[in-house]
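SEVERITY: medium
COMPONENT: batch folding queue
REPORTER: lab tech (J.R.)

DESCRIPTION
The queue accepted two submissions in a row. Attaching both inputs and their returned structure tokens so the on-call engineer can compare them side by side.

ATTACHMENT 1
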Amino acid sequence: MADYTLEEKDSFTVLGFGTELKSDYTDYAGIMKEKSDFWNAVNQDGTLDTLKAVATNDYIFLVNEAVNNKMMHYAGVMTEKTLPDATRVIQFPKGEYLVVKGEAGSSEELSNLLTGIAFGQALPEASDVAYVGGPNASVEMGQRNGKVFGEMWIPVVRK
């Protein structure tokens, strides 16, 4: 049984730099490689540091969203500010969210772990709610004891 909670969240905005994922949505290995390559790039080219400079907190968002029938993946931060070359301002709705908490050895491992638990276990077990689309995010919240910790936030509606 997956360990998850249902939490009410206020609406919030994430400013992100993104990439279109070209792999078929059933090609898990292909999607993971594309995400990994993207994160290596934003860490090396200063994009993530640019985002952190306008953030309202220390959280790093790994956002997945379908936009115009394309699978998009973003590096983002919670902010009300904008940057001239940012890819997207992502609006997360006020409402109920399925939340999965976890920790792992790296940001990438954390995101993969949380995504797997959330979509593979928690959502199927949460019989009173459904994910009906919209942005979802793995949220890196910090480090402790040499591990990265965070949460997966998936907006849901009552069935």
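ATTACHMENT 2
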Amino acid sequence: MDKLKRIEKYIFDFFSTRFELIDIFYRSTRRDRQTGIYLLKEGPAILDLLTSIHNNIEYQFFSEKLVPHKFSTPDALFRALDHFKKYLNDNQYLLDKNAKAGMTSYIVDDIQKIKDEIIEMADYAKQLYDMEDNLVPYQELRYKLITRNVPDFINILKSILASVSYAITKTKEGFFHSNVHLILKLLGFEIISEEMTNVGRIDAVIRFSDIIYILEFKFGVDIDYSQQALDQVKEKKYAEKFFVEQKEIIAVGISFNTKTKNINGYTYEKIDE
């Protein structure tokens, strides 16, 4: 996949998972503005901000083909993203005013979340374009998780483990967990091993701005224990401690084989409250 197609796919996938909810939020907020957003400090200006966000997404960026359909060149696309980022940052004070006045509401919180995610998307899109055509493992792995592509994430991770598996001399469960943690940590992921809950420890947690991955590992010879790992996440309700963050949660059960010193199975599932 060339650079431009990679960027277009990333941006389209990003908004595909969000625009319907943003659209519903925008329309309901505009409809109920007299009893909702207009009660906030500078409420009309905040509604203008939300309207601009909605319109920029709908008419500029939410399209499978961006160049040359929406923008004449890739540079024009990135200039538009930079302009969008600057506009969002310049209007952050509207959200801050309500926070400082103790008038935060779900409206302010939701607009803040939308704004932060768009800025992260714009920054990452530029990183993708600036990279070589052959992505480094971290960028490729990160892209797969951001776009909820767990199968490809596992395949790339298996490839990385295969390159070091013969250096793994120990075959204890904790040693494999440590290697996965170390690999992902060195590649730049925000990963926490042995995350504590009220009922036990989660093997690993990977966080993004809008999604949390819960990884649970099992260990054996030849047998695929990934379903048992996923069942443990659900039975012990590991996801409950993250519900308050209001992010999408995906649990992934991963099975390791002592003979191949690699992943021999996986399964995953979205966890809802």
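NOTES FROM REPORTER
The longest helix spans residues 106-130.
No errors were logged for either attachment.
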